[in-house]
Design goal:
Layout (H helix, E strand, L loop, with lengths): L10 H22 L1 H9 L21 H6 L13 E7 L7 E6 H17 L7 E4 L7 H12 L3 E3 L6 H10 L4 E4 L1 H13 L11 E5 L5 H11 L2 E8 L4 E6 L8 E3 L4 E6 L13 E7 L10 E7 L1 E2 L11 E2 L4 E2 L4 E3 L2 E3 L1 H10 L3 E12 L2 E10 L1 H13 L2 H26 L3 E6 L14 E3 L4
Parallel strand pairs: 3-4, 3-5, 5-6, 6-7, 18-21, 19-20
Antiparallel strand pairs: 1-2, 7-8, 8-9, 9-14, 10-11, 11-12, 12-15, 13-14, 16-17, 18-19
This protein binds 5'-O-[hydroxy(phenylacetyl)phosphoryl]adenosine.
Amino acid sequence: MVWNKEEANSRSEMQALQLGRLQKTVSYVYEKNPQYRKKLDELSIKPRDIRSLDDIRRLPFTTKQDIRENYPFKLFTAPQQEIVEYHATSGTTGKPVVVGYTRQDLESWKEVMARAFTAAGITNKDVVQNIYGYGLFTGGLGAHYGAIRVGAAVIPISGGNTQRQLMLMEDFGSTVLTSTPSFLMHLYEAGEEQGIDFHKLNLRVGVLGAEPWSESMRHQIQDKFGIKACDIYGLSEIIGPGVAFECLELQHGLHINEDYFYPEIIDPETCEVLPEGELGELVFTTIANQGQPLLRFRTRDITRLSYDACICGRTLVKMDRVSGRSDDMLIIRGVNVFPSQIEAIILKREGVSPHYMVIVERKGAMDSLRVKIEVTEDFMIKAAADILKGDEFDILEDVATVRSKKRNLQQDIKDVIGITVVVDLVPPGSIARSEGKAKRIEDRRPE
Ligand code: DLL
């Protein structure tokens, strides 16, 4: 079932809709926004030059830096009195990236989120425990709006609050969890410790995103909670969550709401547009936004597009799950490394949990990689029991197991990423948990 009929448009219907909206957006920003007018004038482009969808390639790119430099409102195109809500991302340095929504933008957001929830099978019978943070982060309110639009009941609990999350999950009979995958894993561990059997609860579906996660992480979450887990993607600059979403039927690849956000894939080095199926940086032009429309916004997220038909009946173009960000990519001795590659290996191994931290250090002129990985609770309990029993043979066996586990992980990671790493196995709970997006990289190299 689709929420809007546009989700199943024919390609020609979709392209006609996109072209009309693109032309309108270019005229709108040219007329109303001095920054865009200046940029387009410098390139000698007038709105009337946009005659086909391919003409989008003539438009300039926009980056996070451009938004920052125009802090807080200079890239807004709608007049101040039409803005009804602000959001912002914290970013790592300096001023946040600010976005502003008009009433109509909020309507669009509700619609695209309703599409995502409908695709995950969520209806007015559901109780959505919304674990995404409320506030300037778009996750909380985005999921809130979408849940209400489909008629579900929302528990606006926000992030953190582990004990209360577990209590309400049981007492309110939550059927849907909306959360970052990493925080959900933390909730599972906390609940398991208290003897909660998640399979006995009413939980059915998870709509998870805001950070990269792997297929193996999906399987673990589905098994542990007894739910189906669908991926949801988005970024504040474009609208927040709801830019793209997975369907329950296939759970493979995310449908992009391309009648709102026009996607392209570019080579991040040359900025050349890549053909369908090639891996590169995702770029969006918002073609229905009013508050702060963005032309060719460089997301830094790495993925590929596919226009193949989907079994769910949607014709919306699909993107692969995001494998990482080009700026999350570590370059170690010339080799490109994504934390997600390491995560995929960890998740396939027994005795270790998906809580890990990749540490980059520099010794002399050489960069080196260390990966801290937590062992599981079961593994620790057995080792501790052997030590208490004082059975030397068992203790020696435990030590040998740890050593071989460490060696195997080091070898597996080397096989995949191509460089030697040191693995440190650490006790459960020793890597800091985040209430929102997980932090996986600690770069200790001097600036
Ligand atoms: O994370 C919006 C969101 C909230 C999406 C809730 C999904 C659910 P930002 O804080 O601006 O917005 O961060 C955007 O997070 O460019 C990606 O790098 C990453 N990201 C978001 N969703 C996914 C996902 C929200 N499903 C940045 N898979 C994006 C991988 C994701 N990465």
